[in-house]
Amino acid sequence: MDLTVKTLEGKDAGKVSLSDAIFGLEVREDIIARMVRYQLAAKRQGTHQSLTRGEVSRTGAKMFKQKGTGRARHHSARAPQFRGGGKAHGPVSRDHSYDLPKKVRALALRHALSAKAKAEELIIVDNLVANEAKTKALAGAFAGLGLTNALIIGGAELDANFKLAAQNIPNIDVLPVQGINVYDILRRGKLVLSKAAVEALEERFK
């Protein structure tokens, strides 16, 4: 698959040949969905917790005598059936993450990249370098490329000026190539890869 390489100014900078094993797969939405669920589960804090009957602050004394009242037999006011008592079977702090095979994770990333290529939402730029850390100038360049909602992936090291200039632009995410992931690819409209990022991805999936 051949794509035209653009500069940040919107000019053509030649062509690049993309590997069909990474960008030309028949998209499997089920694999992508598995990966998204895996990522979202790992992002959950899991700090939700209610108080059990052993944790609420109430007296532990017997409510009233066992016999002679005509009422049901009760002991502690901390029991779940009473107002102010503990919660039975409530949420507890836990880790929501689970394992997903490494091969499935790698395959999901390739299918996400292929999905963007198939939808014509993939843009290749020659390099991600800004002469100065000016958000206004970079926002103008993005507007020229039609980028209003995009994930931008650079090489192993991001240009400091580019990163600073891009961080205040709404709906634009900038990551180094080692941070690329399925969830961020799907949550943004366009995917922008630098030539260095393409080379790193093709090396990674050899």
TrEMBL record:
GO terms for cellular component: ribosome. Keywords: Ribonucleoprotein, Ribosomal protein, RNA-binding, rRNA-binding. Residues 64-97 are annotated as: Disordered. Coiled coil: none annotated. Residues 64-77 have a biased composition (Basic residues). It holds the Pfam family Ribosomal_L4. The keyword rRNA-binding applies. The keyword Aminoacyl-tRNA synthetase does not apply. Part of the 50S ribosomal subunit. Belongs to the universal ribosomal protein uL4 family. HAMAP family: Ribosomal_uL4_B (MF_01328_B). This is Large ribosomal subunit protein uL4. It comes from Rhizobium aquaticum. The gene is rplD.
